[in-house]
Amino acid sequence: MLTVAELNAIRDRVRKQLSIREPHDRLIIGVGTVGIAAGAREVMAAAMQEVSERNLDMVVVGEDLAVSADQMPVVKFVTVNGEETVYTKVTAAKMREIVQSLEAQVGTLPNA
Amino acid sequence: MNLIRSHVLVCAGTGCSSSGSKKVQEAMHGALERHGLSQEVKVVETGCFGFCKMGPIVMIYPEGAFYCQVKPEDADELVSEHLLKGRIVERLLYQEPMTERAVPLFNDIGFYKKQHRVALRNCGKINPESIEEYIAHDGYQALARALTRMTPAEVIDEVSRSGLRGRGGGGFPTGRKWEFARASEDAIKYVVCNADEGDPGAFMDRSVLEGDPHCIVEAMTIAGYAIGAKQGYVYVRAEYPIAVERLSIAIKQAREYGLLGEHIFGTDFSFDLGIRLGAGAFVCGEETALLESIEGHRGAPRPRPPYPAVKGLWGKPTLINNVETYANIPGILRNGPDQFAAIGTEKSKGTKVFALAGKINNTGLVEVPMGTTLREIVYDIGGGIPNGKAFKACQTGGPSGGCLPTELLDTPVDYDSLKAVGSMMGSGGLIIMDEDTCMVDVARFFLEFTQDESCGKCVPCREGTKRMLEILERITKGEGVDGDIELLEELAGVISKASLCGLGQTAPNPVLATLKFFRDEYEAHIHQKRCPAGVCQALLSYHIIEDKCKGCGLCKKVCPADAISGDLRKPHSIDKDKCLKCGACAAKCPFKAISR
Fold it and tell me: Does a structural domain hold residue A8?
């Protein structure tokens, strides 16, 4: 027999897994051909790991961001309201720092 | 790493499944594996997105990119371009028919922009085979609230205050129906869901069952609590195998989670659900015939009263609502009746789902607030009429409804406005017809359907529809005689008044509605032996206009009956005795030299 509290717990836990389908603050990694060649996949892996470990309420997205090759890998943080911050020449280590710096702004997902 | 960064939603409704979405899904899995992305991208099977013409549909989140008519061979490009490199694959995007502009995002597509999804809120959004995804979208919260914080009377009061009316066609206030069932005193009562969707072209109930089956389980359990029933049945046609399978899974999951069965949420309330399969008879959508069928008898209506709320299934008080009606219930109890009542018009609250079909660019399921005009549905959502043709009429209410002409395009879609212009809401079939449609032939088609589906129990329906169909067949064959229209009207009046159930009572509607707005077409068929739309074959006579014919010979080549003769670069002619009236010559002629 399920209690209402258990129902709510399932709701909160699964909602976190599905939050990707709702509007979110987005961390966009420039993963076009040049971006990947410059290490964007590693940057993305670092971003995903950090976001996951910190349980942050934002999504990591790959996009073909248009910037000059010497600025790659590039990362753009876009809030749900459309405010943008661009980071260039991002490394995996720098990516982790960026994610950490955004923690206060985006907040964390509810834990089940 | 356990973070999934993208969800690929592949529609697995009946429409997309039949156009190959299962293979697309498999191809997506394979492509993700090959590109090493299977740990960070999840493929999810969903219910119907409603835009069946564009299927198979694939949506990629978090962007909300909407890809249509995706083939298995497109999977590799979607993965390597969109999911790996973040580039939208433009060639698979939806193109607005009016502007030919490619639209990348779901929310920007005209077809969806004006829709307001209440009954279909989870369709295409969640995995219908996962109770947890439903729960994550506030599923079973309404049931929890009803069982733990409300009395049955309070539940019924909220349903009444929402203004919800039956979506199966009648438009009877749902709260009152629930009150009647509650007021009937009996230790055994039943809750039934009418999922015997029979209108040609209508598939909204199927989509709800395929895309969001738990909302029906939840709503019926709430209804059981409200009226004092412990058992419910969903009567669904066997031709809906995917809907039946998903509903079966939903019921099984609900039992496993304790959301069906004994002492739900630790209360004294117990409820369970069963599925009963119908064999597809149209009359079984009529509530008393449906009850007969559940009991194992031949599907034929019972005289009313007594109404099912008093004496229904196995003689016990029974509440019967349609799928779409139930689909609105959880939202009403979760968000409050006022929020629901704020949508729509004064007497028709909420939204209505329509199955948009026929001569229209965007066919599929649309859910709009009551009061939206037919024009908005046809042009803003439906994208207008294909091939530059003109709108001629739209049929609302399925075979029991009426055809409304261009002059009534600004009619708001609600129960009372449609009734006022001689049509009805029905269950939500909306068939669009263009200038090439013969309205007499349309009436004949619908009457042929209802005549075929008449159960034969009462004479007016069994014999009357047969006689009406015979007259219509004569008219379309050019054998109509003076007085046929009056005879049709007389028969229609008797059948409407004397038939036992809704099927017979509304069967003459397509004839009456077409006579009301397109009487001149009937007269042309009868008196001039002419079909103005050029549809009724017996009334067609193909001939070549000498002045326009260049003697190119294309018509001669395409004619399957060798009925066309003539020398090259000289006007040709058609032998009327040999002509099959297939129209192939007229379609082929580049000079529009063949008239009919």
Answer: no
Which residue reads 């607030």 in tokens? B369
Closest listed residue to residue B460, CA positions, set B503, B490, B498, B509: B498
Judge: A14–B259 Cβ closer than 8 Å, yes or no.
Answer: no
- Return the pLDDT at B49: 87
**Residue A15, domain member (yes or no):** no
Q: What is the mean pLDDT of residues B561-574?
A: 92
d(CA B324, CA B430): 16
The ranges of chain A with pLDDT < 50 are 112
Where do we find the tokens 């989140």? B61
Q: 3-class DSSP state for residue B295?
A: coil
> How far is residue B536's CA from residue B44's CA, in Å, rounded to a whole number?
48
pTM score, whole prediction? 0.88
Partners of A62 on chain B (C-beta within 8 Å) are 5, 83-86
Contact B85 A17 (CB under 8 A): no
With a CB cutoff of 8 Å and minimum separation 6, the contacts of B546 are: B571
User: ipTM beyond 0.95?
Assistant: no
Residue with tokens 């559940």: B294
Nearest by CB: B5 against A3, A32, A48: A48
What are B136's two structure tokens?
Answer: 């994550």
The 8-class DSSP code of residue B160 comes to H
- Pairing state of beta strands B231-237 and B190-195? parallel
Tell me the per-residue pLDDT of B83-141, one tens digit each, with 9 for 90 and over. 988 888 999 999 887 777 888 888 788 888 889 999 999 998 899 999 999 999 999 99
Retrieve residue A59's tokens. Answer: 């999504």
Q: With CA atoms as reference, report the closest residue to B348 among B268, B417, B408, B429.
A: B417
Q: What is the residue type of B355? A: A
Task: Determine the residue among A13, A18, A99 to mutate to test chain B binding: the one whose Cβ has the most chain B Cβ atoms within 10 Å.
Answer: A18
Q: Which residue among A2, A24, A45 sits closest to B257, beta carbon to beta carbon?
A: A2
Instruction: Write out the CATH class of domain B6-113.
Output: alpha beta
A84 touches chain B (CB under 8 A): no
Q: Does the domain formed by B351-434 have CATH 3.10.20.600?
A: yes
Look at residue B67 and give its three-state secondary structure. Answer: strand
B285, two tokens:
């959508």
How many domains is chain A partitioned into structurally? 1
Amino acid at B522: Y
Q: Which two tokens stand for residue B201?
A: 């072209």
Buried b (16+ CB within 10 A) or exposed e, B301-332: bbeeeebbbbbbbeebbbbbbbbbbbbbbbbb
Subunit contact A36:B136, Cβ cutoff 8 A? no
